[in-house]
Amino acid sequence: MRSVVGNKLRKEFKKCFCGKYTQFKEDKQIIIPPGYRVFRYKLEIKMSFFIELCISQKQDEYTIEFGWGCFENNQVPEYTVLKNCSNTEKTIEELILKEEARIRLGRIINPSDQTDRWYLLGLDWKNVPCNAELYLIQDIPIEEALKNLELSLIDVMEKIDKYIIPCFRRVAEKHEYSFD
């Protein structure tokens, strides 16, 4: 991701998310790839919820991962493999039974599709033909990428509200914790 876009994304995501969910704090001790951010809500010594902002190193795009666990060795849990989940409700039901979990936002929204939903802010370089003359291709201007960022954050926050936070509440109830 271009640094201007990445810096703005990290700043605005933190402002939107932590401004609304004040119990989540950025955790800089968690081991994650460069440029990523983890926001964590510690319930007890052995239970934390997290939202991870995953930023592409190569393109102006990002995605969201979320989950819960005990964070042994300052690491988020491994990816959760879901079996035979055909809709969002079944996916959430399977997830909340797990002691720890990590899943991409797109996989809970469209579990039967199993697509890896990324928010594309600039040019989709993955779809540029192999024989294209790269020096002729112009990336989306920074101003447009920043506008796309603002629109994508609105969508991300709506999806966090609709899917992730209710899932966190149900997991907390199952483990007899209070989420709020």
Description:
With 180 residues, the chain is an alpha+beta fold. It has one domain (3-174). It has 4 helices and 6 strands, in the order H-E-E-E-E-H-E-H-E-H. Strands 1, 2, 3, 4, 5 and 6 form a 6-stranded antiparallel β-sheet that branches. Helix 1 (3-20) packs parallel to helix 4. The longest helix has 33 residues, at 142-174. The two termini are 34 Å apart. 27% of the residues are buried.
Provide a compact summary of the structure.
By secondary structure, the protein is of the alpha+beta class. The chain has helices at residues 3-20, 88-96, 105-109, 142-174; strands at residues 25-26, 37-44, 47-55, 61-69, 101-104, 119-120.
Considering the chains and any ligands shown, give keywords for the structure.
4 helices, alpha+beta, globular, 180 residues
Low-confidence stretches: none
| Structure summary, number of beta strands | 6
Cα separation of the termini: 34 Å
One letter per element, helices H and strands E, the order comes to: HEEEEHEHEH
Number of domains: 1
What summary fits the major beta sheet?
A: 6 strands, antiparallel
Helix content: 25-40%
Calculate Rg over CA atoms: 17 Å
The geometry reads as globular
Structural class: alpha+beta
- The fraction of residues in strands falls at 15-25%
Instruction: Output the number of helix runs.
Output: 4
